[in-house]
Write a structure and sequence with these properties.
This protein has 266 residues and is of the alpha/beta class. The protein is built from nine helices and ten strands. The structure holds S-adenosylmethionine (SAM). S-adenosylmethionine (SAM) binds next to α1 and α2.
Length: 266
Amino acid sequence: MNPDHDPSQEAWNHAARGYLAYWSPRFEPYLRRAVDAFRPAPLGPLAVEGCGPGDEILLIARKFPERAIMATDQSPAMVELARRRARDAGLASVLVAEDQAGQVAGRIRQAGGVFSSFVLQLLPNPMGAVADWSRALRRDGSITVLFWPRHTGSSAFSRLQRILEKLEDQRPQWEEPVLEALYRLGLRVGLDELVSFDMEHGSPEECWQQLLDSGPLRAVERRIGKDRLAQAASEWLDDHGFERRGNAWVHRPEARLWVLERSDRD
Ligand SMILES: C[S@@+](CC[C@H](N)C(=O)[O-])C[C@H]1O[C@@H](n2cnc3c(N)ncnc32)[C@H](O)[C@@H]1O
């Protein structure tokens, strides 16, 4: 796909190295919790959707050595980083390719499990993605998905999300509709948990800059324009919700973790 025609892909290409340097260490405890909850079927390949620079690939490969892992991301720069890291770790059973999340069933049948972290909330059609992942699974397989839910409470990320929504970056309401549709999708909930850890930044301004340079805000900027994003920055920096602890600015963002099992599982 030509990045000129896909602003989200271009934005994540731009973010890739900074994401690995700044956000990967901050997201590590969340990914560890999700990988801990990932209990795929004993057989079948493991699909990792939207793998970014590959942190979860390394954790999953350590937990399930020898299992075939087929990871994808839409961003060539992210794929390159993830491939290099898998190769440097000597992981011969890992394949990383460019692809859209939510297109697993066309590539993999009888997957033992599907894993995805911090991607589902970015997709234009989260319901379609979950339906696709369900179709790719073996009967005893399961899906583990970690995502940022719609604003829960007063954390810094929730405040930012509310400001962006006010400025017309409307994201679809999808969490409850997906849960309500699960049975139709051949799935049931095995786990639904909120996961939070302290996260530190040098300053609120540093956090904003990293969200823009190395995180999701570049794609938001393409959608709502520079002026509106500058307005969001000013509003958020006036009332960000971080707590000062010594030299650090701390918040405790709440992610949501689902384990979804096939409903026809024994
Ligand atoms: C917040 S990062 C998460 C990366 C990694 N999974 C993690 O938890 O650290 C979001 C990733 O999703 C990818 N992404 C966004 N939209 C996508 C899509 N439609 N299909 C595949 N990947 C997508 C981006 O390229 C980026 O690497």
